[in-house]
Design goal:
The complex is a heterodimer of chains A (105) and B (315).
Chain A: E1 5-7, E2 9-11, E3 16-18, H1 19-25, H2 30-38, E4 53-55, H3 57-71, H4 76-104
Antiparallel strand pairs in A: 3-4
Helix pairs in contact in A: 1-2, 3-4
Chain B: H1 6-9, H2 18-32, H3 42-56, H4 59-66, H5 104-110, E1 133-139, H6 141-146, E2 149-159, E3 165-175, E4 185-188, E5 204-210, E6 216-219, E7 222-229, H7 231-236, E8 238-242, E9 249-253, E10 262-265, E11 278-284, H8 292-305
Parallel strand pairs in B: 1-5, 7-11
Antiparallel strand pairs in B: 2-3, 4-5, 6-7, 8-9, 10-11
Helix pairs in contact in B: 2-3
Classes of the chains: A mainly alpha (105), B alpha+beta (315).
Chain lengths: 105, 315
Amino acid sequence: MNQEVSTGILLDETTELTLSELSQACSSSTEWVIELVDEGILEYTGQRKSQWRFSGTSLLRARTAMRLQHDLEINLAGVALALDLMEQLETMRERLRRLEVANRS
Amino acid sequence: MDYKDYYKIMGLERGASQDDVKRAYRKLARKYHPDVSKEADAEILFKDLGEAYAVLKDPEKRAAYDQLGANWKAGQNFQPPPDWDAGFEFGGGNRGGDYSAHSDFFETLFGHGFGSAGADRGRSGFQARGEDHHAKVLINIEDAYHGETREITLRTPEIGRSGHVTTKQRTLSVRIPKGIQQGQRIRLPGQGAPGIGDNSAGDLYLEIEFNPHTIYRVEGRDIYFDLPVAPWEAALGATVKAPTPEGAVDLKIPKGTSSGRKLRLKKRGIPGSPPGDLYAEVTITLPPADSDNAVELYRKLENELAYNPRRKLGV
């Protein structure tokens, strides 16, 4: 098949998304993203809203927040709590894995 | 098309109240939500649950569903009676989240034409810029080591003039960046839905997932695999061949290695800064005692080593 190869942008910690890019990617309004910021779910750099920049990993967090909010019918404070606890759980699983390695070698 | 027993999915009796439906949903949704649950088939269970809830929480849909009768069994081949939903009055449709793709059973009963559910897509109605699309892409672990170009096929539902939903298929060649990890996303500008008029198209976001591998397991950038080792290799130490996604390497087994020990191959995980590690988890395997000679060798070990593996248990 003769085709042009598309090269994408990898969204990691070093990639930056603007407020409108992030809300577009979530198929949501900028107001909703601002609510996430107010709730402390997302963090940004920059002064005015037009200069806000989010890291590439924010997209994953925002979309997870959207699913939790919609599917579990919980408010944003609950979503924020769930996300923080899930993150702690992941960190602890990671530590557990490392300890298992250290103990066995 | 298979019949779906929405009551069974939600663990409810047919006579359950609307409050029971809501409670059952909340409880099961927390249990099976794919973002929360670690269960392997959480996504499927959650989809079924969402579909069951979409029907049972809505008194109109529930009444229509109940009308089909209680004699159907889940999985039974099902055809809806003609005009089965006649005489029901329907309110507005509701829109689901990411996991809301419904079964054929649901679509036939409650798809377009049922109430105003068919108007769902009008939500983004008169937006000038094209919508962003999201798709999951399965790649092989090896692709993350080399950065391959992969052909992916995407199916996009489109609403035709008659209001019927058709699926448009397109193939895209995408360069997978070296060092990509499970769950990371790639953004392809302008590859989403086309814009209206002269406006720019939306973007396409690809979520990367690794195909299950027969040998390797992935944790972030680290990779694990089971390494079978013969008893004498473990006891005396040896250099053995070990697989890596980049080809076989020589791996040193230290003297006195026990089962379950993890041997680290530094920087042999998924590339990046820092690169991940590759872990070989040692499994000591026994040669079968399937010949007179093998039996004799085992007996000799037994008699000459006087080894009690249960010493620490005090027996």
